[in-house]
Amino acid sequence: MRLKLSVLTTILCCIVIAKEAETVGIFSGPQEFCYTDMECGPDSDKWDGFCHSGKRQSPINLKVPYHSPSRYTHLLPLDRFQADHFFIQNNGHTINVDMTPVGENSQFFPGHGLSFTKYKFSNVHFHWGASNSEGSEHQLNSRNFSAEMHLTLRDAINSGDPNALAVVAIFLQVDDSVGPSPALAPLVNAIDQIREPHTHWMKVETPIDLSPLIPMRHDATVYSYQGSLTTPPCNSQVNWYVFGEPVPIWSSDVSAFRGVMDGRDAPLENNRRPVQPMSDRRIEIIKFV
Ligand SMILES: [Zn+2]
């Protein structure tokens, strides 16, 4: 079981599953990768595992055809994304937040049509750019957004399942008409304390509610496809659910993200993998009832 946990810890998107990640060094093994330098960027051998050989890689440019197949399901339970405290970490690649929703049972997604029956919320992390015109990992019809939030859900029962992970992705687009985000405030206020990269998680005794950042409405559209982790070792085991509607975000909130440092003594920004070939995969459109 320990071995299983250790392997799982190294494969989850960007970090992961929780405080088990404390045992993984920032600058050792598969985590030596970076985003912008030749010697450790996405084309280098630091992106090992399945990054160069995998067939269903992420992110992708979501070119949504007019006649995509669609299916209907129930709304995401937004109360699953609230907690009375959280843990935060700068692991040199992203700002990673681990939160345990109030009430043990509320971690699960019972009977949910997004195949979340056996998944539970694991963590949230972000990808952002050096400027407001870029930063998302996925593209929607070739458009980039200022940032992208990943809500990672992991298989609560069988981590060896090929569909062991689900990631809900939400585009964040700078729009200064909205002002500071109360949902992001607990994170932004804690950033000073995680400016330097570290494996340690810092406990923040502040309630957090990410639901305002999730554009969950009856008329929302979500694009789903089979993909991979977007960080080494890029395992192809992720069911992606990408909300089509970007959420407006204050520019200073994104700027705060740019204030943390990566593992190479430089500001952490452009922490996004380039889009990968679509190959013969299909994009499914999910609508809500
Ligand atoms: Zn991610």
Structure description:
With 289 residues, this protein is mainly β. Strands 2, 4, 5, 6, 8, 9, 10, 12, 13, 14 and 15 form an 11-stranded mixed sheet that branches. The protein has a two-stranded parallel ribbon with strand order 1-7. A two-stranded antiparallel ribbon has the order 3-11. The chain has 3 helices and 15 strands. The model is unreliable at 1-31 (pLDDT under 50). The termini are far apart. Strand 4 (86-90) and strand 5 (95-98) form a beta hairpin. The chain has a single domain (2-288), classed as Roll (Carbonic Anhydrase II), CATH 3.10.200.10. The longest helix has 10 residues, at 2-11. It has helices at 2-11, 185-190, 251-257; strands at 61-62, 70-73, 82-83, 86-90, 95-98, 119-128, 139-140, 147-155, 165-174, 202-204, 208-209, 221-227, 238-243, 247-249, 284-288. The protein is globular. The chain binds zinc ion. The site of zinc ion has 6 residues, from strand 6.
